[in-house]
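Exercise 7. Given the components listed, write out the predicted structure of the assembled complex. Treat all entries as one system.
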Amino acid sequence: MAQALAPRDWPLWEVFVRSRGGLSHKHVGSVHAADPDMAVEAARDVYTRRMEGVSLWVVPSGAITASDPADAGELFEPAEDKVYRHPTFYSIPDTIKHI
Amino acid sequence: MYTTDLQKFDKSAKSVQALQPDEPPELVEAFEARIAADAFIEPKDWMPDAYRKTLVRQISQHAHSEIVGMLPEGNWITRAPSLRRKAILLAKVQDEGGHGLYLYCAAETLGTSRQEMIEALHSGKAKYSTIFNYPALTWADIGAIGWLVDGAAIMNQVPLQRTSYGPYARAMVRVCKEESFHQRQGYELTMTLAQGTAAQKRMAQDALNRWWWPSLMMFGPTDDKSPNTAQSMRWRIKRDTNDALRQKFVDVTVPQAEAIGLVVPDPALKWNARKGGYDIGPIDWDEFYAVVRGEGPVAKERMAARVAAWENGAWVRAAALAHADKQGRLSAAA
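Answer.
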């Protein structure tokens, strides 16, 4: 009993909201909750009091693997010198249409 | 809603602004350069210890203010004079709770825990806005709180939407979006009383008399008494000085009072054409410091209410965890 009442925060969940059909879920913040159902209800109360969403995802915060900002330079470096991945890289005469 | 610059009074924060000698100069330099370029700092980015501690203190203090801020208004929910006013007040108080939660989560991204922050509040180590240590005596106070207290809070918070710490800035964007209804409902309530019977108008004036000066104090000590402002502004944790925000608040609020026939309780209040703003009379800083020290009229009641809510809810928090653990074990066994 003493152990059950020992102070311990409820687990942390990251909250994602789909603002309307056709859009993807977007991270909006986090909530503490004991279990997934409670996390969905808490997320509803905290992040959608003004009809901000039509769907919610909650994900245990510890389940997210994030890239390290200190490595951002080398992680994203490969894309830096590949301008040919963009349509504007190619020059095509104005007379050619629909391309 | 409400940030007051209380760092001067927080003994544990004395050396907070000093940079640690063992921090790698190249990292400090890169950090300062990003801040100077108005870039956002995110949770996993390297940051000086002093920046982290200043933010934890400011954000948690802000969160505590939102949570304690539910108390003076919550007292009036059952006594609201109509269903319309009751629904509005309920929604507002619920928003304040939500604001506290956005902010606690933002502070947690800096490595503190909800538990630690709540303990710091309950032990008196962490401060909250002095304004909530004044009582809400009449229904007109609910109008004055929305109009003046939330109005002052908005002044403080709008610039914080561009504060350098990403999670704090994003929380403030949400808070500000929700806060404007708070101020408008308060003004509308006050206006309704001011246009009512003589007794109702007296009640509105009395509430303005009592809330005006505490609202001006919400912006914190004058700039010359706020030694850490320069560092906080350089780090973009704070975007305007206390005095600049206070002036802005006075300039927009005085005409709002005049428009509904109420008188701002400051005999020295005078339009200053040269500076394009109002001059105000002296603020009673002795009262402010006394309230910060916890000598506000209802400071003890407020903390007692918070601690009771926390302790009475302990078994619910424990039971929910026990239930979740059991469900986890059952589904693992299945």
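Discussion: Residues 7-16 of chain B have pLDDT under 50 and may be disordered. DSSP finds 13 helices and two strands in chain B.
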